[in-house]
Amino acid sequence: MAWSTRELAELAGTTVNTVRHYHRLGLMAEPDRRYNGYKQYTASDLVRLLRIRRLVDLGVPLSRVPDLIDGGTAGERELDDLDAELQAGIERLQRARADLAAIRSGHAPASGPSGFEPYADTLSDADSSLIHVFGRLYDDEAMADVRKMVGEDTSPPEVRAEIDALAADADDETVLRLARALAPSIEQSLRDYPWLSDPSDHLPRGERVSQETFVEALQELYNPAQIRVLALASHLATEQIAVAQASAPDETASGA
Questions:
Q1: Residues near 228 by beta carbon (within 8 Å), at least 6 away in sequence
Q2: In terms of C-beta density within 10 A (0-12 exposed, 13-18 middle, 19 or more buried), how is residue 106 classed?
Q3: CA torsion, points 123, 127, 128, 131, in degrees to nearest 10?
């Protein structure tokens, strides 16, 4: 008995386009044709197609299929590599499912940064975008701290809302007022996460690239007045910490 391309594909649980693709790659030889020009496949063609599908289902690259299907064997290292790729794929899918559950639970936008779904309502579009960039600059340990910082943010909601809506040409008095209101929250983060003052150990892509990327993202995501508020608030927070450290009693001297 001979089968048409469609019949062969159905028997093998695949598609006509897939069979044609395998022909183009040379994985399957072109079969004989009937008097009417239609291809006629035999049992040997079906078996070869099933073997190809078996290897593909195992994750074998199509470029390796000819070697393995024509008498070759996969070495232990190759099988280990395939297993590692499958494991990585499983972990990726598990993370995706966990993220989807968090998105649904928090009614968060699907395009938001992973892990920040519970805080979607408190993040402005600019903040959310900047966190996306952070995810490409900081290592996992630092990003875990960033999540904690967002969750622990003590800045008044009305202050954050006013900063989000701040006009680009806001006057100095407004900028100073908002910076002073924001500074305590930044100060607390700097105290709780000292690495923020020198994040070099948490920048896998290097300090220069990370700094340039951060500055460019900041300038594009926030307007000039908002950047002034953030910079001044950071300066005030750092200054306050320095003052507190300078006025703290010398533990060495007191111990003596």
A1: 170, 175, 179
A2: middle
A3: -130
